[in-house]
Amino acid sequence: MHLRHKLGISDFTIYSNRKLSHNYVVIHPSNAFPKGAIVDSWTGQGVVELDFKTRLKFKHREENYAVNANMHEWIERYGQAHVID
Fold it and tell me: Per DSSP, which regions of 1-85 are E strands?
């Protein structure tokens, strides 16, 4: 929610990873993150560049994950009201 409603980053995808049994956010490549980045607050990893090593660590492969459309919709619809300054 903070990425979208506080930092103004809208070019990201929320993934549900079956191999890791949790969700994380991938910020698509940009000036700030040329290779993209994974944001994973659940494991305490924080923001990590989406390089080859990170892809392996997160088992970030198409057969392991799915886009979590429900979370995207919820953030757009209700997220603003739940962001704490």
Answer: 12-17, 22-27, 37-40, 46-49, 65-67
Give the Cα separation of 14 and 22 in Å (integer): 10
pLDDT at 61: 86
Give me the chain's average pLDDT, please. Answer: 79
Domain extent, residue 64, equals 2-82
Q: Which residues contact 50 (CB under 8 A, 6 or more apart)?
A: 26, 27, 33, 35, 36, 37, 38, 60
> Measuring CA to CA, which residue among 6, 14, 65 is closest to residue 38?
14
> Cβ neighbours of residue 83 under 8 Å, at least 6 residues apart?
1, 2, 5, 6
User: For the residues 71-78, what does the mean pLDDT come to?
Assistant: 73
What's the pTM value of the predicted model, to 2 decimals?
Answer: 0.71
End-to-end CA distance of the chain: 12
